[in-house]
Description:
- This protein has helices spanning 43-54, 82-94, 127-139, 155-160, 204-219, 239-250, 277-288, 305-358, 368-388, 393-403, 431-443; strands spanning 3-10, 14-23, 26-36, 60-65, 71-77, 104-114, 117-126, 146-149, 168-174, 179-185, 188-195, 229-234, 253-256, 410-417, 421-428, 447-457, 464-472.
- It is an alpha+beta fold.
- The strands form four sheets. It has a five-stranded mixed β-sheet, with helices on both faces.
- Strand 12 (229-234), helix 6 (239-250) and strand 13 (253-256) form a beta-alpha-beta unit.
Amino acid sequence: MARRILTLDLGSHTLKAVMIENTLRGCRVLGGFRHQRDPQLPLAEQVQKFCQAYDLRGDTVLSCLPGDVVLHRLLTLPFARPRQLEQTVPFELESQIPFGLEEVLVDFHLTERTAHGGTILAVAVPRTTLTEHLDTLAAAGLDPALVGLAPLAPLSLLQLAGRERQGVEALLDIGESRSSVVLLCDGVLQGLRTVSTGLRKAGGFEAFLRELRWTLLALGDHLPAFPSRFFLCGGGSLLPQLSEALAHAFAAEVVPFQHLTLSSVPMDLQEGQGIFAACLGLGLSEALGLSAPAINLRRGEFAHQGQRAALRREMTRLGWLAAGVAAAAGLAFALEVHRLSTRYETVRQEIRRVFTDTLPEIHTIVSEKAQLQDAATTLQSRRRVIATAAAAPLELLRQLSGALPEQVKLDLDEWTFDEESVRLRGTTTSFDAAESLKTAATALGLFREVQLKDVKTATGGKKVSFTVHMLFAQERR
């Protein structure tokens, strides 16, 4: 189903409006409308006649305020989380403006996220100004869902046109008696100011350029140079001459908005892209969900009632849905816990059965895993001894016995055999007999070193005790 979006810009000299049709397939601009203001008539009456004359009705209504009726600051804060910004930005802004928080309404937009926090555009509008604006539209039967900031709205069109955003650039919205300057660096907002200088002011181009130069110096005092590109929008037949003057004064490229290619704008409406830049920016940003600096001053007690009702319905629906999801998740969790508990007990019983069948000699079970690992380590050690030994233990003992002289008698008390060495401890008849054992072991050629240790007379003085440590040759280990 098609949705019609009506956007309004109530300028100081001209009333402007754009109608956009938004469908599932995309959106297209249906038309742009404008009407010269009469300073002798109340604004509410003029808006009412304007809407009646062009049958301006929309499913969604958007409007904007000029830059000179709001206060704004760029704040640098050491955090960028929305909740922290919501709690901090109003009080930080209050310290920099001549109003208390009870007198203004504040909105903000995170323009840049850094490693140490973020840069925030904070905007405050007097409550009386916002009330007057909403009352003016209400007299014409209009209830805007969003009240934005006119100088920022055209930025959406630059994003839509796919313009490369590099270096220092400036967006100029030129009016009859006031102009807005938006300073950008690599596409990031660096400054914003509305000055009381337009094309109809005394002094002409020279006065305007002089005021613009001072404004750029003030906004970009931390930037390396003047803008190398100007984007130009606004109304008036003098814009072509202003483009030439800007290009000459700043040695910069000047891009009028009517030269931008916007797929949603028909060819016959492209000439009006500069005039309706704020309305087009608001409407297309709403229709396409663009990420240009988003300021909506309809907050708090000024929040759009249609949005509140829709939000309440959506929150109620989401609440019931969340409750159902939580109940289903709780039941699924309980069933999964029961299933895992049953499976765990089954697996544990099977582990105990396998352990008992494998190691029946162990009656005290402390940790099946640790005890099985110890048993496996012991078996692996024994396997390595058998696999790497130069001869089987009994064969080695036989060879050693055959190499000893027949008169040498040995009584062995200990025989230790592992993958690195053989250790013998026992007694013999004399010191020479113990030395003969060392000589015989060396002669076998199986050991890289044979050590005879602890040779001493045994208790009673009739025998000699000894220890022989025989280390296998390196290549046999």
